[in-house]
Write a structure and sequence with these properties.
Chain lengths: 565, 201
């Protein structure tokens, strides 16, 4: 056993010296406009010399395209899964209807097209998308399925900030992976990787211009946290949190990002010599207990060669200044109107419970209640401002994430709320012996049957059941569930390339349409479809199909058969 | 410090035991009868003189499996006349994954000139029996005392996308060693490819 550890230490030294061979940082491709085609597939990537590594990709082979949204636009997503297993795709941080959110209930079976759409109301910030299939999140995220979303708005556009994507505005998805002897990604023997992977690049290097640059940093890990700084300890400026720009930049030399959190920072390269270099470093040695990846183990379920040590994340080489370079940090950014404790009319408390090591013990959960797909744990009234207090006097740290809304952190018991986390957040690091209170408004989207999630964003924790569900209900609404389902017919039948739905009451709203074939395979999932132009069935094989239509008013589902010629 | 649910432990233990038993004791597989892309049923007993078989679980859609048909044809050409034919089996759950349907298998075998049988394991019973994990996943069977003994299981070789960079031809080496009456030096490797998802019974 001792010899094995020694061998690993020697190998580890070899890895570290070999890391002088850098790979150019992958900058994810971009998609913009209002229609986004995302193809999720099984694929592979040449990560290491020798055999390729099986991965999951969206339009590529590890980590998908960056989606650019403009605030105010309605974005339409064509998510086509070619995986041979079910998945979901969650738009992390987006304010949208529950039925579009891509949580564990919007399961996309193999071969299915899912078409959510929503109006972008979020502020300019850095968001992301990733699978959220309960019990499968760690496996599917480990394979590299995910990507960035960058929202632009007028307030951000009016500021002198770096925003030339891939030049002075760089997205960085920080992860690590463990590879086995056959170069396969090993997500079962440990939840921590042994090698940093940034945007799908091992040992990455990027050349950045001699001026202020903006880094949009996402912790896309399974469980590891990052305590980030630069190798020369230079000061940088935090300009944005998960959900938007701060009121003013906050200077810092370190920033902690736990799983799921994002930060936008500006760093000045204007005083560096062209050709000089420095590193973005995870100063992860000696962190507080409960910091993901702070464990001393190098092997075992929570072991990693990167645990409890400082390691390089990104090698930065200084290149030539670009035209239109940003040469200063703005003194002020945007004026946010934050909610306060006084705005809240409802208070809730959540306790982190269980998760004690040992066989037979329940997994981590909230209030001794493990995730149940069919249980709504909380009901929130539309437009209410609520104050949530999450208490962790439990055995490890976590990150708390809630869907639907961005919140404002009011207090922390572990330390005063830092300026670095003073903006809009949707995810935060919940330390051991920490009590965190936040306030949020649950506006715009009510849906009595389709839940949003709140959960720990450590993938093994949420897969294990540290997740619960809430619905947002419109208490002023009338209960129509006793009414008869809305009538409709399909034409032409048999149909050619387009199938049309004729509603008996033209004012009827459609909540959901699903089409399945005679073998029971799901062809498409259409939340609140816009049916005026018909449904494109041109790619369907000839045969019998079933269309399930749920109407908005009664949430009742009616099935009709049609034939594709 | 965090924990997984106990179902995972049970699964891990089961897999560990399975692998352990595989390396410790002889694993014997039973004959099967599956429909080939030519419509005929195929069994291991069809070739009375077969010394062994190369059985490869593969499929249409998996991008990693797609890299191997030329190499499967080569293995077939090399060893069928020596009494070790190659049989490919697709065990994808075609209820959920249409691209691996029997009709699509027929098309693929024609288009890519498969020399070997390509069998449709529509109930996934053969994949279960072999404990096939991935596509492709190769098994070298040898006839001993009238039984089919697994002499090798795992990857076909050690480089999918770059055939010229292959350093270890695991299947080829195993068959050559068996034909020479020698023990197989590498009896097991990890198969790499897309997961064969077994539908719950
Ligand atoms: Cu957790």
């Amino acid at each position: 056993m001792k010899l094995k550890i020694l061998l690993i230490a020697v190998m580890c030294g070899a890895v570290m010296s070999a890391s002088a061979q850098y790979n150019t940082l992958v900058i994810p491709d971009t998609l913009s406009g209002t229609t986004f085609n995302l193809n999720i597939k099984d694929t592979f990537k040449q990560f290491l010399p020798g055999n390729q590594t099986i991965t999951g990709g969206i339009n590529g082979n590890f980590w998908g395209p960056t989606l650019f949204f403009n605030q105010g636009d309605t974005v339409h997503m064509n998510v086509q899964s070619y995986l041979n297993d079910s998945t979901t795709l969650h738009w992390h941080g987006m304010h949208l209807p529950a039925v579009m959110d891509g949580g564990p209930h919007q399961i996309i079976p193999p071969g299915t097209l899912w078409q959510p759409y929503w109006k972008v109301t979020n502020q300019a910030a850095t968001f992301w998308y990733h699978p959220h299939l309960h019990t499968m999140t760690e496996e599917q995220m480990s394979k590299g399925i995910g990507g960035f979303i960058i929202v632009r708005d007028a307030a951000e556009a009016a500021l002198a900030l770096p925003r030339t994507y891939g030049v002075d505005d760089i997205p960085l998805a920080l992860t690590s992976r463990k590879f086995d002897a056959s170069n396969a990604i090993d997500y079962t023997s440990s939840h921590y990787g042994d090698t940093p992977v940034v945007n799908g690049t091992l040992h990455p290097q990027v050349t950045l211009p001699k001026q202020y640059v903006r880094l949009r940093i996402l912790n896309a890990e399974m469980e590891r946290a990052y305590n980030l700084g630069f190798s020369d300890n230079r000061t940088f400026y935090i300009i944005g949190n998960d959900g938007g720009l701060l009121n003013a930049p906050v200077s810092a030399t370190r920033i902690k990002l736990a799983v799921g959190e994002r930060a936008e920072i500006m760093v000045n390269l204007g005083s560096d010599a062209i050709g000089s270099s420095f590193d973005l470093v995870a100063y992860n040695a000696g962190q507080e207990f409960g910091f993901g990846g702070g464990e001393p183990n190098t092997t075992g379920t929570f072991g990693s060669l990167l645990n409890n040590r400082n390691f390089n994340v990104l090698h930065i080489v200084v290149g030539a200044t670009t035209t239109g370079a940003i040469t200063a940090v703005p003194s002020a950014l945007v004026s946010n109107t934050y909610l306060t404790a006084a705005d809240a009319t409802v208070s809730r408390t959540l306790l982190v419970t269980d998760g004690n090591p040992g066989p037979g013990n329940p997994p981590f959960n909230f209030d001794h209640t493990v995730y149940n797909f069919n249980t709504i744990n909380k009901t929130v009234h539309l437009n209410d401002v609520e104050k949530w207090t999450v208490i962790n006097s439990n055995v490890f740290g976590h990150t708390f994430h809630i869907h639907d809304i961005e919140f404002k952190i009011l207090s922390r018991s572990s330390h005063p709320v830092g300026a670095y986390e003073s903006g809009w957040k949707d995810t935060y690091y919940l330390q051991v012996n920490d009590t965190v209170t936040f306030v949020a408004k649950f506006d715009d989207y009510a849906d009595p049957i389709h839940p949003f999630m709140y959960h720990c964003h450590f993938a093994p924790h949420e897969d294990g059941g540290m997740m619960q569900q809430f619905v947002v209900v419109d208490a002023t609404g009338v209960d129509n569930t006793g009414k008869a389902a809305g009538g409709f017919s399909l034409y032409p039948n048999p149909a050619g390339s387009r199938l049309f739905v004729s509603l008996e009451d033209p004012a009827m709203q459609v909540y959901y349409v699903t089409i399945t074939n005679a073998a029971g395979r799901t062809m498409c999932m259409l939340p609140r479809p816009q049916l005026a132009g018909g449904i494109d069935i041109s790619a369907y094989a000839p045969g019998t199909y079933f269309l399930q239509l749920t109407d908005e008013l009664t949430k009742k589902t009616t099935v009709k058969q049609f034939v594709k010629q | 410090m965090a924990r997984r649910n106990s179902a995972f432990y049970t699964l891990a233990l089961f897999v560990a035991l399975l692998l352990h038993s595989r390396t410790m004791a002889q694993v014997v597989v039973n004959d099967f009868s599956l429909r080939n892309v030519d419509g005929k049923m195929v069994s291991l007993s069809d070739h009375k003189d077969a010394k062994g078989y190369i059985v490869v679980f593969t499929c249409n859609h998996c991008p990693f499996a797609k890299l191997y048909p030329p190499r499967l044809n080569n293995l077939y050409k090399k060893f069928a006349k020596a009494g070790v034919p190659l049989i490919a089996i697709s065990s994808t759950d075609t209820v959920v994954y249409e691209g691996d349907s029997y009709a699509e298998m027929v098309k693929k075998a024609k288009k890519e000139h498969f020399l070997f049988p390509y069998l449709y394991d529509n109930t996934q019973a053969v994949a279960r029996q072999f404990a096939a994990q991935k596509t492709p996943h190769a098994f070298v069977l040898w006839k001993e005392g009238g039984k089919w003994v697994v002499k090798y299981c795992g990857a076909i070789d050690d480089n999918g996308a770059e055939p010229a960079e292959v350093k270890h031809r695991y299947v080829q080496d195993a068959v050559e060693q068996l034909l020479a009456g020698k023990p197989v030096t590498v009896p097991e490797t990890r198969s790499i490819g897309c997961q064969i998802n077994l539908r719950s019974k």
